[in-house]
Specification:
single chain, alpha/beta, eight-stranded parallel barrel, globular, binds ligand GBH, carbohydrate metabolism, Glyco_hydro_1_beta-glucosidase, cellulose degradation, Beta-glucosidase, polysaccharide degradation
Length: about 450
Amino acid sequence: MVTNPMPPFPAGFLWGVSTSAHQIEGAAEEREPSVWDVFTAEPGRVRDGSTAAVACDHYHRHREDVALMAGLGVNAYRFSVSWPRVNAPGGLDFYDRLVDDLCAAGIRPVPTLFHWDLPARLDWLERDTAARFAEYVSVVAARLGDRTQHWITLNEPAEHTLLGHALGVHAPGKRLLFDALPAAHHQLLAHGLAVQALRAAGAVSVGIANSHGPTWPASGEPADVEAAELYDVLLNRMFAEPVLLGTYPRLVGDLLSDGKRDVGADLGVIAEPVDFYGVNYYAPTRVGAPQDTGTVFGGVPLPAGLPFSLRRIEGRPVTDSGWPVVPEGLTELLTGFRDRYGDRLPPVVITENGCSCEGLDDQDRITYLDAHLRALHRAIEAGVEVRGYFVWSLLDNFEWAEGYARRFGLVHVDHATLTRTPKASYAWFRQVLREQRSREGAGIRPHDEGAG
Ligand code: GBH
C-alpha cells in the first residue's frame, strides 16, 4: 500500500495514458498491410504466435475506451495514427471520430504520427521514406489540426532501428547491426520534415518521443567506462543531439558520412526547433566491456562481436519483462540531460513510463508508478521543466514480439472476449489525479468522478 500523499505537480501539467495503433486497434482488414502485419505472419517471430489482427479491437470499441479514460480523470491521451490505415479508404475518419470523442470528454488528443507500423511497401533504409512521411503528416494535420494542440512525430526511433533493423527481433526483421544506421538517420530526417509540415499546418506544440535511460558502467575500469559511453551514444546521444543541437556524436557522424552520404544539410532540418521533448523511460542499462559469453537486451540474445556487453543490474526487483525497477534512474536521466544540454533542452514530457505485471490486483504496478512519479517530482524540484506524464499503457495490448504475454495496462483486457476490467492501478491513478486536481494550481479540469 502506498500511503504518503503525492507532492503537487505544476499547473497545467498533462496527465495522461499512452497507447499505439498497432498494439490496440485491430481491424487489420481496414488498413494497408504494415511491416508488422508482414512480420507477424512469419512463423516464430512472436513469442505466443499471435498477431495484432484484432488486438484490443479498439477500432470498434474506442467509445468504451474513451469512457474508461474519462472515468480515470486524465486530461490527455497519447495515441498513434496508423499510416497504413490513413492510406486505406476512410482511415482518417476513424481518427476524426476519436478526436471528437476525446474533445467531448475534455481529454486532449496527443497523436504520435509514427509508432513502428510502417506501410509494408516502404522502407526506412530508403531516404525517400522521410519525404513520404512528411506528405502523410500534412494530410493528418489538415484533418485533425483544428482540434489538436500537441503532436508527436516519431516514437522511439532508437528502438525501431535497434530491434527492427539491427537485430531483427521486431519488424521489418532486418539484421544489419551497424549498417542499420541509415534507418535511424532517415527517421530523424522524417522527424525534421514532419515538424516543418506541422508548422505549415499551424501546429502549436510539436515534439518527438525518444527512448532514454542512464547507462551505468559495470565498474570504474576504463574498458567498462568506455563501453558505457559508447552505449550512451547509441541509445541517448545519437537521437537527442541531432534534434536538440543539430549535431551527431562524432562516432555516429563518421559511420554515417562514409563518403557517399553528406548529413550536414539534413542536420539543419532535423534540428528544426521542437516545443517539448518526449522521453519514454523504463530502466537504466548496465554496460561493460565486450565479453565472450552472450549478452542479452530486453530478453533478446545479441550477436557476438559487439563493442559492449549488457550486464544485470543487481539487487533490484524486476518486472515481468525482466527489466529492473530503478525509479531514481528517471531523476538522474532528466537532471543529466538538463546539465548536458542546458537551455537547448525544451520542456520535457514523459511520454511513456510503466511496467508489465500480471493480475487485477496489480500492486507491483502501483509501486512502480508511484515511485517513478516521485522520482519525476524530484527532477522538477531540481529545476528540470517537466510538463506532463503519460502511463504506458491504458490497456493490456499486443506487446510486439512478446505478443499478448506481457500486460502493461491499467485496464485488463481479456483477449478472448475483449472485456475490459479496470485494475487496482486504475483506481490508484484515479485517486492520484483527483488529489492533484484538488490542489491549487494543479491545473486539471474539474471532472465528473462518476464513471469507472
Ligand atoms: C516502448 O518500448 C514502446 O514504445 C511501446 O510500444 C512498448 O509497448 C513499451 O515500451 C513496452 O515495451 O532489459 O532492462 O535492459 C520500450 C523499449 C526496450 C525499453 C527494452 C526497455 C530493455 C530494458 N524498451 N528495454 S533492460
